[in-house]
């Protein structure tokens, strides 16, 4: 995680309600009793029962649970009773994952996916929970605390709502996806757990992460940041400008920590969300970025422009994508060898023809 998640943000009432329903349904079936609605949103069970596809998926799970033997039922009840926060499995590789019987797993997965993708959008469910999913997403991406701003907290490179429409309320904007920290296909028990659902950008979710598992890699447990409480520190992210290996200086990002557990979490973050390659790729056109923000006639002016632009970006990292990374890159350029920095300044200066074209455009 690049940015810390602000505390005291109200969770999604829809996902919280559906998660409570899923767990209570499983416990009630395992214990041979009816569902206790005491701790569920009023009207939620009726809304679910009134939807045939959801009811079919619930009945299939109940049938498989009922068919378990006594030992299997007790083991699953014990796991459900623990109600372990899914993020515990990210930060503690010794925490035992719930053991879902093979006969139950596929129907639990089917129900969890259906609850997340379909049931959560039913008007009756929204009415029972008192809000829709977009209401929570709007709270999360609000610019004022406890909101976290509209820039993805995982990478800092993309908006959550990619196009904000002036004539729409916040909860009606086109939003990005929710990332299942524990993938719903692998860990269906957490398919609608609000603590397992993190708003992130489309690139992080649909291009970088895809089906990658934060808990295992090549069959081996690994550590990962718990995003609600952890993030990479400023000192653990190194941004430098390498002017030795290529014809044109290139930006290099490294993640380093003296603590082995922290180093592993940094490696997992980069492996899953592809932070290093995405940032380095963005700044392949370093000269163009400098021409946008720090065009200057000499080195002294160049350093001042870099300082001004860097400070402005650093003060608004959640406002515009890549602000955080531009601030770090401009600081790295400032720290370059003066001769290399001067060569970079000259290389990023606009050509006489470009200046002439712009003057013709704006001052004709």
Residues in helix, %: 40-55%
User: Main beta sheet, described?
Assistant: 2 strands, antiparallel
Total count of strands:
6
Radius of gyration: 25 Å
User: Looking at the structure, what is the overall shape?
Assistant: elongated
Q: Would you identify the regions where 5 or more consecutive residues have pLDDT less than 50?
A: none
Total domain count:
2
Number of helices: 16
Structural class: mainly alpha
Beta-strand percent range: 5-15%
Q: Which key features would you list for this structure?
A:
364 residues; mainly alpha; two-stranded antiparallel sheet; 6 strands
What would your notes on this structure say?
This is HNH endonuclease. It comes from Limnobacter parvus. With 364 residues, this protein is mainly alpha-helical. The protein has two domains: 13-211, no CATH class; 234-347, no CATH class. The protein is built from 16 helices and six strands. The protein has helices at residues 13-31, 44-49, 52-66, 70-82, 88-91, 105-117, 123-129, 133-140, 202-209, 260-273, 275-282, 286-293, 299-314, 323-334, 338-347, 352-363, and strands spanning 178-180, 197-199, 216-217, 220-221, 237-242, 250-255. A two-stranded antiparallel sheet has the order 1-2. Strands 3-4 form a two-stranded antiparallel sheet. A two-stranded antiparallel sheet has the order 5-6. α3 (52-66) runs antiparallel to α6 (105-117). It is elongated.
